[in-house]
Structures are given as structure tokens and as C-alpha cells.
Amino acid sequence: MTSEDFVRIFYSNFSPGIDWANIDEIAWMFEEGLFGLNSQAIATNDQFLERVDLVVNPKYGLIKNGESFEHMALKSLAKDYLVEYFDIAENKIKMEYPLIGFEVDVIDEDLCFPTECGDTSALKLEKYLSLSNTKKMLILPYPHSEDIKVFEFVANPRFFEYINHKHQFLNQKNAKLR
Predict the structure, then answer these.
(1) For position 107, what pLDDT does the model report?
(2) Can you say how many angstroms the Cα of residue 38 is from the centroid of all Cα atoms in its chain?
(3) What is the pLDDT of residue 67?
(4) Residue 24: enclosing H or E segment and its boundaries?
(5) Strand 115-117 relative to strand 137-140: parallel, antiparallel, unpaired?
(6) Total domain count for the chain?
């Protein structure tokens, strides 16, 4: 997978603020086998549009907090995915949960499956996969008339070796600047 492939996952709306340095590092880490990546379609575009209609309908009790209906629909599908594929009880899933300086869109109570929907910072991959509880980081990009896909990132042992080495290097570099 190329950097452009990862841009389509992390920045599906092709926002102007693409973090190319982190995207290129992610592409390199993937080439080096530092993490595994799987994807699968979880809903058709028609099912996504139906879900958008559901979140728009006030009778379902969903409240729009400055986010798009499309984003809310993706979060709803992400919640369903955690319930169906990881057997997490619906009442054990949190939305907009504060996690290491970010707010993760959807996550289980045990913090094993941080899930981002739509556009997300590429930096979150390194941060979330580095957490001891994380089993997989999931991303559901905006679909743009395709099926809804979930991308599952899983750290390999070499990922942790690389991150530790990177942090040591940056700490030494910063210490020299003081």
C-alpha cells in the first residue's frame, strides 16, 4: 500500500491538512511489516444512506453535537461492528471518549478497540496501537458512494520495538537541544 492509499483511509474527504510525514511513516511501517492491516465491507452505500436517515430522525434520540449526520451514521455502524464482530455488549461501548489527548469516536469500555470514523489524524495510529490495552485500531472512512469499509490495524512485536527506538531517539535529540 502506498502513502496515497493511507490518505484515503485517514483523510477520506482529502482535507487540506494532510499530515504527509505521518502518512509516509505509516506506509513505511506497513512495508516493513510493523503492523497488520485487514479491511472488509460492513455495509452497502444504500445501508449507509438509510443509517444517515435514521440519525436525522429525532425520534431515535440521537443528538447532533456539531458533527455531520454522515459522521454520526459511521459511528452508529462502528458501534454495531464492535457488538457483532467482537461480542461487546452495547452498553459497554463509549462515544467521544477521551484517550491520550484525543477523543476517540467509538471505543469499548476495556479500551481494546479504539475506532475512528471519517477523517482522522494519522498520528492516532501510533498513539492508539502503543497503548497496552489496544488489540486493534479501527477506521471507517467516509464512503463517497462505495460500500462502508472497516480497516483494522494490528501492531506486530516489531512495531513496539520501532516505537521504543523512535521515542529514545527523539528524547536524546531533545535532550541535546536543552
Answers:
(1) 98
(2) 13
(3) 80
(4) helix 20-31
(5) parallel
(6) 1
Alpha helices for 45-122 (secondary structure H): 45-56, 69-86
The vertex-159 CA angle with 114 and 135, nearest 5°, equals 30
- What's the pTM? 0.90
Q: Do residues 108 and 86 make contact, with C-beta atoms less than 8 angstroms apart?
A: yes
Local mean pLDDT, 10-residue blocks, the chain (178 residues): 94 82 95 97 95 78 71 94 97 95 96 96 95 97 93 96 84 66
For residue 71, the number of C-alpha atoms closer than 13 Å in the C-beta half-sphere is 18
Q: How many CB atoms lie within 10 A of CB 75?
A: 24
Return d(Cα 46, Cα 85) in angstroms, integer.
21
Domain that holds residue 72: 3-177
